[in-house]
Specification:
By secondary structure, the protein is mostly helical. About 75% of the residues lie in helices and about 0% in strands. It contains 25 helices and no strands.
Length: about 500
């Protein structure tokens, strides 16, 4: 009986386990699925972390490699390549201070206005660093951005404003604003802070040598004479001393300084022009040999050749230029800046037909507006020209200077020189809205108003006093118009022109 019962139970047990197995399998499948999902998620998460960390490590390595390359190129004076490499770094790291510094240095060496932008980025990342703000102010002054320079100096804390470097930059800002009294005060403060600094001594002496105070000018001459023995300042000191001697009519001292300047290793072509200017006034026998010696030297470089011709134009030697260019190769005089001074020479000698032919065709690149302007002047002076032809050419010249303040300034000077009254007035009024050039424009408008208010020399001026002197009515103006002409010029300027 017992055996029967055990055999019966044995037969039931396998059946029971067979029934439970599907049940447990059904229970393990969701857990198994959950485990697979969790494992997949963990794998993806770890892969993302690994990828990001690996990418970050690679980017850091790549950035350090590019920084090393850019710094090396900057040291080798390969400024364009250094700037390109640094811009690639900025693409990887948009707030890279080392890349900003390299770009600021490279663009500054290339004399590019872009350096102001990079200096601004450095100053933004280092708002409390006075050197960063001073570097920004210096770069802004270099490219005429006075408002940027003022704001940079304003951000410097009060304690740091006692530094000599701050006084120097503030002095150059004062000079750009035309405040020479403040410039002298700032330079003097810099010397007071660092009396042994020869650069600060030179800046102050070069300014005070023109002072009307005998004590200041005498002390400045002594400082410059000492610095003329220092290689770094020799040329600049001799240049200042030569100008001062010429202004004081001390011809013996001027001759001595001119001889020393020509023998200086750092002599520039501008120094040769300074010596020419002196010898032209002092001694014709020394002037002619020096001019003949400088001419072939100038012909090697277009900018030097243009500078010499411009000096000759301004010193009554335009006729010699016209003869000289006949001996020069055409490729040396056909493009700016030399072609501009050649046009000026033809205008100085009133050879309008040659000037018209010279400016009739070709392209002067960025100074195309001057070619058009000289052609307009030649057309105005021609006997058979019409006003319409002149106006068309001049309008084209003005349009070529849109968004180019330096072109407008050159055009305004040209119009004033050749008595193009309406054209020069409109140009000066337009230039007066540009802060860096505002003072020069206001001075030009003031001179123009003064010239118009000055009585013209007529025979009626020498009549007895009870007789009426030629005045406003004879010049087609209402009485009192002379006194109001300057106000009329300046009334159209915005209020910001006076701040």
């Amino acid at each position: 009986m017992a055996e029967t019962i055990r055999s019966t139970e044995d037969r039931r047990s396998p059946q029971l386990f067979r029934r439970l197995k599907p049940f447990f399998q059904r229970q393990r499948w969701p857990a198994r699925l959950a485990f697979l999902l969790a494992a997949s998620a963990l794998t993806i998460f770890l892969a993302i972390i690994f990828f990001r960390s690996g990418s970050s490590v690679y980017n850091d390595w790549h950035e350090r490699r590019l920084l090393h390359r850019a710094a090396s190129m900057l040291q080798q004076e390969k400024f364009e390549q250094a700037a390109v490499t640094a811009r690639a770094i900025v693409q990887l790291h948009r707030e890279s201070l080392p890349a900003f510094s390299i770009l600021a240095e490279a663009t500054e060496k290339q004399n590019s206005e872009e350096t102001v932008w990079w200096r601004e980025q450095i100053a933004r990342l280092l708002p409390t660093d006075p050197d960063s703000q001073l570097n920004l102010a210096s770069a802004a002054l270099r490219f005429g951005q006075l408002d940027v320079a003022r704001k940079a100096l304003d951000r410097i804390s009060t304690p740091d404003r006692n530094r000599a470097a701050f006084h120097v930059v503030a002095g150059w800002l004062a000079r750009a604003e035309g405040n020479f009294v403040k410039q002298e005060e700032q330079f003097a403060a810099a010397v007071k802070e660092e009396p042994s600094n020869d650069l600060y001594q030179f800046n102050l002496a070069a300014l005070q040598i023109h002072s009307t105070d005998p004590k200041k000018s005498t002390k400045a001459r002594g400082t410059l004479d000492r610095l003329s023995k220092v290689a770094r300042f020799r040329t600049g000191a001799l240049r200042a001393l030569l100008n001062d001697a010429v202004a004081r009519d001390d011809l013996a001292a001027a001759d001595n300084f001119a001889q020393q300047l020509q023998m200086s290793q750092q002599v520039t072509f501008g120094d040769y022009l300074l010596c020419l200017n002196f010898y032209r006034k002092l001694d014709e026998k020394k002037f002619r040999p020096l001019l003949d010696r400088v001419k072939p030297f100038a012909a090697r470089n277009p900018s030097d050749l243009a500078a010499l011709m411009d000096w000759m134009n301004n010193n009554g030697l335009a006729g010699e230029i016209v003869k000289w260019i006949e001996k020069l190769p055409g490729d040396k005089i056909s493009s700016p800046p030399v072609s501009i001074t050649v046009a000026g020479a033809y205008a100085e000698v009133n050879n309008w037909s040659r000037l018209k032919r010279w400016t009739h065709s070709g392209s002067w690149g960025e100074t195309e507006y001057l070619r058009l302007a000289y052609q307009a002047i030649a057309t105005r002076q021609s006997q058979h020209a019409t006003d319409t032809e002149f106006e068309t050419l001049w309008r084209s010249a003005e349009e070529a200077t849109d968004q180019r303040p330096e072109g407008q300034l050159a055009l305004a000077h040209l119009a004033s020189k050749w008595k193009l009254e309406p054209e020069s007035e409109q140009l000066w009024l337009r230039i007066a809205r540009n802060p860096p050039m505002r003072r020069e424009a206001l001075n030009a408008l003031a001179r123009r108003a003064a010239d118009h208010s000055r009585p013209r020399p007529t025979r009626t001026q020498y009549r007895p006093k009870h007789k009426r002197v030629a005045g406003a009515r004879e010049r087609g103006l209402r009485p009192g118009a002379e006194r109001s002409q300057l106000r009329r010029h300046l009334r159209v300027l915005p209020l910001s022109a006076w701040t």
